[in-house]
Amino acid sequence: QLQFVESGGGLVQPGGSLRLSCAASGFTFSSAFMSWVRQAPGKGPESVSVINTDGDYTRYADSVKGRFTISRDNAKNTLYLQMNNLKPEDTALYYCVKWNYGPRDWGHGTQVTVSS
């Protein structure tokens, strides 16, 4: 079955950086659009970024543009999210998601907390 193993979350001070990774299995990763979706306490899910199969098309939520970079390594079946200049409002559970005109299959998430 589909499996997503997210890692890289943690506690970081404002202005700091983190790199999230998602090791995917159980499907043809190289044929799937992928996304990072986050959910903060008391809020609905937000698609942070989406990447196409080859990695040559990406899009970002306005809230993270210029600070976050999504990428993928199809040879390793792994999705990444480089997060720079983190802000307290980036605090959320970050999910690796298989995307097909919307979120379809979700990982368990990795917690990112931005606080001084």
The global form is globular
Order of helices and strands: EEEEEEEEEEE
Largest beta-sheet characterization:
7 strands, mixed
* Average residue pLDDT: 96
Poorly predicted parts: none
Q: If you compute it from the alpha carbons, what radius of gyration comes out, rounded to the nearest whole angstrom?
A: 13 Å
What would you say this structure looks like, in words?
With 116 residues, the chain is mostly beta strands. It is built from no helices and eleven strands. It has strands at residues 3-7, 10-12, 18-25, 33-39, 46-51, 58-60, 68-73, 78-83, 92-99, 103-106, 110-114. A hairpin with a 6-residue loop joins strand 5 and strand 6 (58-60). The chain is globular, with a radius of gyration of 13 Å. The protein starts with a strand and ends with a strand.
Which properties best describe this structure?
11 strands; 0% helix; 116 residues; mainly beta; seven-stranded mixed beta sheet; globular; four-stranded antiparallel beta sheet; 53% strand
SSE map:
Layout: E1 3-7, E2 10-12, E3 18-25, E4 33-39, E5 46-51, E6 58-60, E7 68-73, E8 78-83, E9 92-99, E10 103-106, E11 110-114
Parallel strand pairs: 2-11
Antiparallel strand pairs: 1-3, 3-8, 4-5, 4-9, 5-6, 7-8, 9-10, 9-11
In short:
This protein is an all-beta fold and 116 residues long. It has strands at 3-7, 10-12, 18-25, 33-39, 46-51, 58-60, 68-73, 78-83, 92-99, 103-106, 110-114.
